Amino acid sequence: MKLHVFGSSAGTEPQSGRHHTAWAIEYAGGLYWFDAGESCYHTAHLMGLDLLSIRTITITHPHIDHTGGLPNLLWSMDKLIAVGKGTGGFDIRLFQPIPGLWDAAKNWLGTISKNTRFNVIPQQIKDGLLFDDGNISIEARHNFHMDPPDAAEFRSYSLRIKSKDKTIVASGDVKSYADMGDWLDECDLLLMETGHHKSSEVCAALRREGRKIKDIIFIHSGRELLNDYENALARAEKAWGAPLRVASDGSTFEL
Questions:
Q1: Strand residues in 46-106 grouped as ranges (E)
Q2: Helices 199-208 and 229-240 sit at what angle, rounded to 10 degrees?
Q3: In 3-state terms, what secondary structure has residue 50?
Q4: pLDDT, tens digit (0-9, with 9 covering 90-100), for 222-254
Q5: Distances in Å between the alpha carbon of 56 and those of 68, 148, 167, 212?
Q6: Terminus of the chain with fewer CB atoms < 10 Å: N or C?
Q7: 83: nearest Cα among 123, 52, 42
Q8: What pTM did the predictor assign?
Q9: Parallel, antiparallel or unpaired: strands 157-162 and 137-142
Q10: What pLDDT score was predicted for residue 73?
Q11: Could you tell me the maximum CA-CA distance found in the chain, to the nearest angstrom?
Q12: Over the Cα atoms of the chain, what is R_g?
């Protein structure tokens, strides 16, 4: 299993060498894609990944730094088929946090081209199991990044991705690390955003509470890490008591 990162920046002003958040899990010959920030398709293609092996696309919430690259990703996949890099007719499950995200992307694509040469199957995200193909399962849990606890409908989600021997918790954008609840009591890897949090404070709280997290990779990095990388990482590692990793555009992690 591999984790590929195509965009590692939070929704700050443009950052040199970093684009908005997008990443994928590669496993059993398929790509399971999460979020779709700007230029994600470009980075993935230049990393040598087969975009036509994407089986699911899951969007954690509808902010533009997580959705801005979605139409271009789908257009690029269609283009690869058009130039003979693969065959069409396959299905892609698109898990969207709000109704109409796929409709908006489809309308945009429809103004410049015909329908895609593959089938997009949209499904609105709700709490619970979203997907399980026998290789990877994806579960969703709402968080409070966009909505209060008493909201009737939620638009922002954290995710838990499981294979037969790995459990990955992806924070999405969260109001607090506590939004992920008991998922943090046992996971092999936490993908934690730092766009809205100080990395050292999150690490100190997780360690103090004795959460059973084997490894942390910071993603969706904000100004704390981007503007003072070495010192911020040193503070986080001191708080955690072990080495930590920070995702960058084009990075791949063996899991």
A1: 54-58, 91-96
A2: 0
A3: coil
A4: 999 999 999 999 999 999 999 999 999 999 999
A5: 17, 28, 18, 28
A6: C
A7: 52
A8: 0.97
A9: antiparallel
A10: 96
A11: 55
A12: 18
Tokens representing 249 are 């555009």
In order of 20, 64, 88, 169, 225, the CA distances from 138 in angstroms are: 22, 22, 25, 10, 28
CA distance 50 to 35: 17
**Mean per-residue pLDDT, 71-93:** 94
Q: Say if residues 174 and 196 touch (Cβ distance below 8 Å).
A: yes
Residue with tokens 């899990």: 25
Tokens 């838990």, residue located: 160
> Comparing C-alpha atoms, which of 173, 230, 177, 169 is closest to residue 208?
177
| Burial (Cβ within 10 Å: 0-12, 13-18, ≥19) of residue 111 | exposed
The order of strands in the sheet holding 245-246 is 128-132, 137-142, 157-162, 167-170, 189-193, 216-219, 245-246
User: What's the pLDDT at 111?
Assistant: 78
Distance CA 35, CA 108 (A): 18
Cβ contact 61:172 at 8 Å: yes
Token pair in block for residue 244: 């930590």
Q: What Å distances lie between residue 215 and 35, 82, 164, 181, CA to CA?
A: 21, 41, 18, 17
Going by C-alpha positions, the residue among 33, 13, 9 that lies closest to residue 21 is 9
Tokens found for residue 111: 């103004």
Tens digits of residue pLDDT in 13-45: 899 999 999 999 999 999 999 999 999 999 999
**Separation between Cα atoms, residue 25 and residue 23, nearest integer Å:** 7
DSSP 70: H
User: How far is the C-alpha of 129 from the C-alpha of 225, rounded, in Å?
Assistant: 33
